[in-house]
Design a protein that fits this description.
Strand 3 and strand 4 form a beta hairpin. It contains 17 helices and 13 strands. The strands form four sheets. A six-stranded parallel sheet has the order 5-2-1-6-7-8, sandwiched between helices. Strands 9-10-11 form a three-stranded antiparallel sheet, with helices on one face. It has two domains: 272 residues, Crotonobetainyl-coa:carnitine coa-transferase, domain 1 (Rossmann fold); 88 residues, formyl-coa transferase, domain 3 (2-Layer Sandwich). With 406 residues, it is an alpha/beta fold. The model has no long low-confidence stretch (mean pLDDT 96). The protein is elongated and about 85 Å long. Helix content is 38%, strand content 16%.
Length: 406
Amino acid sequence: MTCLTGVRVLDLSRVFSGPWAGQMLADFGAEVIKVERPGRGDDVRQQGFRAKDAAGVETSETTSFLAMNRGKRSITVDMSQAEGQALIRRLAAESDILIENFKAGDLARYGLDYASLQATHPKLVYCSISGFGQTGPYSHQPGYDPIFQAMSGLMSITGHADGEPGGGPMRTGFAVGDITAGFYAVSAVLAALRHRDMVSGQGQHIDLALFDAQVAALSHLAMIYLVTGQQPARLGTASPITCPYQAFECADAPIMIAVGNDSQFVKLCECLGLPELAADSRFKTNPDRAKHRLTLVPLLAEVLKTRRVAQWYADFDAAGVPSGPINNFSEVFADPQIVHREMLQHMQHPTIGEIPQVANPVRFSASPVHYQRPPPLLGEHTAEVLRDVLQMDEQGIAELRQRKVV
């Protein structure tokens, strides 16, 4: 028995944020029904690299879709048709949670907004994920991750300083805003579910904006500005508040060093053969080191470049100095810690064969995560869901197919 056994999720979402939330709920044991457009499906079925089958032949399945949609059953429903809308309403009535990430107000046109569904299914927890939220001057606008990275301030603190090679604001290397919003969505729906079951007996509407989520995730960096009025500097791999806390070049490649306290700095200096730095009044405490960063960092860098990453890493590990190599993905998935934690899983897919999956990082002691379904083919489970959930017969399903409702 998993944590969310008996919970049903109707996933009307597309692209990244909503599907990521739906996948995590599926990992935790919820039954997740993914509703897609007939013929085309989720937009990410056309984004990313095409996976190849065991014979090396390219399939229609994309890396983006495979990353966000395991554990779900896929059905296709044309919600522009009245019969399609009626089907989704019936599925919502049989569900505990609904996730959608349409533009604010779009689903009201189909009678699938929260107000419409809540009237007949008051226990439904309805999570709306949108670019700018359901209210406010930007609520009508569509939005994608780079927009929120730019507008939230994230890009203003990411990248090298102006005047340095490659200086200027920089986007992070993945859709951090979407994934962050997905995590907030999971937390929110589980909290709302608990409130329904333990307090009110009623569901509720969750209004989650990607813009809001990205601003909230900036956390301590935003607090620097709010408390001091100062814009945190762009420092590349370095931290504006902790030092040394950045990448350094070694003889063969860079290494990341993250000294979190004064005792770790003493150990670092001992490893580098520079014990005098730990006694220097300019570097005694972290605030001192951060203040004199431009003096301290070159002194450390000069020694670090004399040996290879593996040599320094071994010494730092033995001494208790936090550090790590800057891995590419081949190195990540060969890392003995990642191997030990079984962060790479494999599943059998109906057209590709064996596919890799990055595991859910949560480790429950009593109800472990089970990966029960691979990412589905488009509409793979339409008939199955209509039979199992809505008790429709084969003739009724065939008639819906004939009218292109499903």
